UniProtKB/TrEMBL annotation:
Pfam families the record matches: AIM24
Name of the protein this chain belongs to: AIM24 family protein
Source organism, top-level taxon: Bacteria
Organism: Streptomyces chlorus
Amino acid sequence: MFRLQSSKVLAVEMTGDAVKAKNGSMVAYDGEMAFKKLSGGGDGIRGMVTRRLTGEQMTVMEVKGRGVCWFADRASDINLVGLRGDTLYVESSNLLATDGGLRTGTGFTGLRGASQGNGLFTTTVEGQGQAAIMSEGPAVVLRVSPQYPLTVDPGAYVAHQGNLRQSLQSGVTFRTLLGEGGGEAFQMRFEGDGLVYVQPSERNTIAGDV
């Protein structure tokens, strides 16, 4: 069972089950725990092929035991996401932990990944259970509906879930409107029905100011 010990610390109560977490994110535990390093970037052959194509590498550990284990990473804010058979798309650097029964993989994201310097793929989490994602500052969860599409700065994007169509647009951006932009810039557009998680801080990108 996942719960927030604070906004920056995840507590996982374990009764012999397993959890997958970002390698090195365990900060404390009580009880009996076993730790095993896993290959990252997604389960199975597709994850291996993706890492070879993009050079991406997620380092993940499996924690199994009885007791409570606490996780944190660089004082990032932590957000809990419940999955009921749907899929969560999340940047690999923003994924902290998942229930052991959830499947992780890779999803093609088109040119958006290239604009962020993260390759052409993003991490997918699917199944029944909980996942913990991180953000720089408290994440904002924005609803997308057929009547109200959403445009997001790629540097602020963290994750999304639901029946959403994603596209990349070039042109005027938020910084450009303020006279601070320069070079080629992009925006992410979401249409459909679902949720988008954004952070109040922008990561660096390589496709111009966004």
